[in-house]
Write a structure and sequence with these properties.
By secondary structure, this protein is α+β, with helices and mostly antiparallel strands. The chain has a domain of 104 residues: Muramoyl-pentapeptide Carboxypeptidase, domain 2 (2-Layer Sandwich). The protein has 4 helices and 6 strands, in the order E-E-H-E-H-H-E-H-E-E. The strands form 2 sheets. It has a 4-stranded antiparallel β-sheet with strand order 3-4-6-5, with helices on one face. The chain has a two-stranded antiparallel ribbon with strand order 1-2. A hairpin with a 5-residue loop joins strand 1 and strand 2. The termini are far apart. Bound molecules: zinc ion. The site of zinc ion (ZN) has 5 residues, from strand 4.
Protein backbone atom coordinates (compact mmCIF):
# COMPACT_ATOMS: atom_id res chain seq x y z
CA UNK A 1 0.00 0.00 0.00
CA UNK A 2 1.25 3.46 -0.89
CA UNK A 3 1.88 5.95 1.87
CA UNK A 4 -0.30 9.04 1.30
CA UNK A 5 1.45 12.40 1.09
CA UNK A 6 1.09 14.44 4.31
CA UNK A 7 -1.61 16.80 3.00
CA UNK A 8 -3.82 13.80 2.25
CA UNK A 9 -3.46 11.76 5.44
CA UNK A 10 -6.48 13.07 7.30
CA UNK A 11 -8.53 14.08 4.34
CA UNK A 12 -12.06 12.74 4.78
CA UNK A 13 -14.06 11.07 3.47
CA UNK A 14 -12.55 7.68 2.76
CA UNK A 15 -14.40 5.11 0.69
CA UNK A 16 -14.39 1.33 0.37
CA UNK A 17 -14.87 -0.72 -2.79
CA UNK A 18 -18.42 -1.57 -3.84
CA UNK A 19 -19.23 -5.21 -3.09
CA UNK A 20 -22.00 -5.67 -5.67
CA UNK A 21 -21.67 -4.35 -9.20
CA UNK A 22 -23.78 -4.45 -12.36
CA UNK A 23 -22.46 -4.04 -15.89
CA UNK A 24 -23.74 -0.93 -17.68
CA UNK A 25 -22.22 -1.96 -21.00
CA UNK A 26 -19.28 -0.32 -22.75
CA UNK A 27 -17.90 3.08 -21.81
CA UNK A 28 -16.92 5.65 -24.42
CA UNK A 29 -13.71 3.70 -25.19
CA UNK A 30 -15.47 0.33 -25.43
CA UNK A 31 -14.36 -1.02 -22.04
CA UNK A 32 -17.06 -2.71 -19.96
CA UNK A 33 -18.18 -0.32 -17.20
CA UNK A 34 -19.72 -1.19 -13.82
CA UNK A 35 -21.87 0.54 -11.19
CA UNK A 36 -23.60 -0.59 -8.01
CA UNK A 37 -27.11 -1.82 -8.93
CA UNK A 38 -29.25 1.16 -7.79
CA UNK A 39 -26.90 3.58 -9.50
CA UNK A 40 -26.83 1.43 -12.64
CA UNK A 41 -30.64 1.49 -12.84
CA UNK A 42 -30.80 5.25 -12.25
CA UNK A 43 -28.07 5.86 -14.84
CA UNK A 44 -29.75 3.76 -17.51
CA UNK A 45 -33.07 5.50 -16.93
CA UNK A 46 -31.41 8.94 -17.05
CA UNK A 47 -29.45 8.11 -20.20
CA UNK A 48 -32.56 6.82 -21.99
CA UNK A 49 -34.54 9.95 -21.04
CA UNK A 50 -31.72 12.20 -22.22
CA UNK A 51 -31.49 10.30 -25.52
CA UNK A 52 -35.24 10.73 -26.02
CA UNK A 53 -34.71 14.50 -25.59
CA UNK A 54 -31.94 14.51 -28.20
CA UNK A 55 -29.11 14.70 -25.65
CA UNK A 56 -26.28 12.15 -25.86
CA UNK A 57 -24.64 11.13 -22.58
CA UNK A 58 -21.63 8.79 -22.64
CA UNK A 59 -19.76 7.17 -19.77
CA UNK A 60 -16.11 8.19 -19.51
CA UNK A 61 -15.53 6.40 -16.20
CA UNK A 62 -17.69 4.53 -13.66
CA UNK A 63 -16.63 2.10 -10.90
CA UNK A 64 -12.88 2.08 -10.20
CA UNK A 65 -11.42 -0.11 -7.44
CA UNK A 66 -8.94 1.07 -4.84
CA UNK A 67 -6.41 -1.37 -6.36
CA UNK A 68 -6.90 0.10 -9.85
CA UNK A 69 -6.55 3.64 -8.47
CA UNK A 70 -3.29 2.54 -6.84
CA UNK A 71 -2.02 1.22 -10.21
CA UNK A 72 -2.88 4.52 -11.89
CA UNK A 73 -1.19 6.63 -9.23
CA UNK A 74 1.87 4.34 -9.02
CA UNK A 75 2.34 4.51 -12.80
CA UNK A 76 2.30 8.31 -12.61
CA UNK A 77 4.86 8.31 -9.79
CA UNK A 78 7.11 6.02 -11.89
CA UNK A 79 6.83 8.45 -14.79
CA UNK A 80 8.23 11.13 -12.50
CA UNK A 81 5.12 13.16 -11.72
CA UNK A 82 4.99 14.82 -8.32
CA UNK A 83 2.23 14.18 -5.79
CA UNK A 84 1.01 17.72 -6.39
CA UNK A 85 0.63 17.04 -10.13
CA UNK A 86 -0.99 13.66 -9.56
CA UNK A 87 -3.48 14.75 -6.91
CA UNK A 88 -4.62 17.70 -9.02
CA UNK A 89 -6.36 15.19 -11.32
CA UNK A 90 -6.45 11.82 -9.49
CA UNK A 91 -7.79 10.98 -6.06
CA UNK A 92 -5.47 9.21 -3.65
CA UNK A 93 -6.41 5.47 -3.54
CA UNK A 94 -9.23 5.02 -1.03
CA UNK A 95 -10.53 8.58 -1.47
CA UNK A 96 -12.34 8.41 -4.81
CA UNK A 97 -16.14 8.31 -4.97
CA UNK A 98 -15.62 5.98 -7.94
CA UNK A 99 -14.69 3.17 -5.51
CA UNK A 100 -18.30 3.09 -4.28
CA UNK A 101 -19.80 2.41 -7.72
CA UNK A 102 -22.15 5.39 -7.23
CA UNK A 103 -20.08 7.96 -9.16
CA UNK A 104 -19.95 8.38 -12.90
CA UNK A 105 -17.94 10.66 -15.18
CA UNK A 106 -20.03 11.75 -18.13
CA UNK A 107 -19.12 13.07 -21.52
CA UNK A 108 -20.84 13.89 -24.79
CA UNK A 109 -19.90 13.96 -28.50
CA UNK A 110 -17.73 16.90 -29.59
CA UNK A 111 -16.30 17.43 -26.08
CA UNK A 112 -13.05 15.91 -24.79
CA UNK A 113 -13.34 13.78 -21.65
CA UNK A 114 -12.99 15.32 -18.21
CA UNK A 115 -12.58 18.98 -19.16
CA UNK A 116 -14.21 22.06 -17.64
CA UNK A 117 -15.57 22.90 -21.11
CA UNK A 118 -18.13 20.14 -20.53
CA UNK A 119 -20.16 22.79 -18.67
CA UNK A 120 -20.79 24.59 -21.98
CA UNK A 121 -22.45 21.55 -23.63
CA UNK A 122 -26.14 20.83 -24.12
CA UNK A 123 -25.54 17.62 -22.14
CA UNK A 124 -24.42 19.58 -19.05
CA UNK A 125 -27.34 21.99 -19.34
CA UNK A 126 -29.70 18.99 -19.51
CA UNK A 127 -28.03 17.40 -16.47
CA UNK A 128 -28.30 20.55 -14.36
CA UNK A 129 -32.07 20.55 -15.00
CA UNK A 130 -32.86 16.84 -14.84
CA UNK A 131 -30.14 14.79 -13.07
CA UNK A 132 -31.52 15.37 -9.56
CA UNK A 133 -34.80 13.79 -10.68
CA UNK A 134 -32.86 10.57 -11.22
CA UNK A 135 -30.95 10.87 -7.94
CA UNK A 136 -27.72 12.34 -9.32
CA UNK A 137 -25.91 15.40 -7.95
CA UNK A 138 -22.69 17.15 -8.95
CA UNK A 139 -20.09 16.22 -6.31
CA UNK A 140 -17.58 18.98 -6.96
CA UNK A 141 -19.18 22.26 -8.00
CA UNK A 142 -17.10 25.44 -8.13
CA UNK A 143 -15.80 26.41 -4.69
CA UNK A 144 -16.75 23.07 -3.13
CA UNK A 145 -15.79 22.54 0.53
CA UNK A 146 -13.72 19.43 -0.33
CA UNK A 147 -10.99 21.50 -2.02
CA UNK A 148 -11.43 19.43 -5.19
CA UNK A 149 -11.16 21.18 -8.57
CA UNK A 150 -14.45 21.96 -10.32
CA UNK A 151 -15.61 18.76 -12.06
CA UNK A 152 -18.78 19.40 -14.12
CA UNK A 153 -18.51 15.82 -15.50
CA UNK A 154 -18.56 13.97 -12.16
CA UNK A 155 -22.04 12.98 -10.86
CA UNK A 156 -22.88 10.78 -7.91
CA UNK A 157 -26.10 8.93 -7.21
CA UNK A 158 -27.54 9.51 -3.72
CA UNK A 159 -30.16 7.28 -2.17
CA UNK A 160 -33.19 9.44 -1.38
CA UNK A 161 -32.36 12.32 -3.72
CA UNK A 162 -34.79 11.08 -6.37
CA UNK A 163 -37.82 13.37 -6.57
CA UNK A 164 -41.40 12.14 -7.14
ZN1 LIG B 1 -15.12 11.26 -11.44
Amino acid sequence: MLEPPPQYRNRPPRFTDATVLTSIGPDRLGREAWLEPNTARAWQSMQATATASGVTLWVASAFRSIARQEEIVTAKLRRGLTWEQILAVSAYPGFSEHHTGTAIDLTTPDCPDLVEKFETTAAFRWLTRHASGFGFALSYPRGNPHGVVYEPWHWRWHDGLRQP
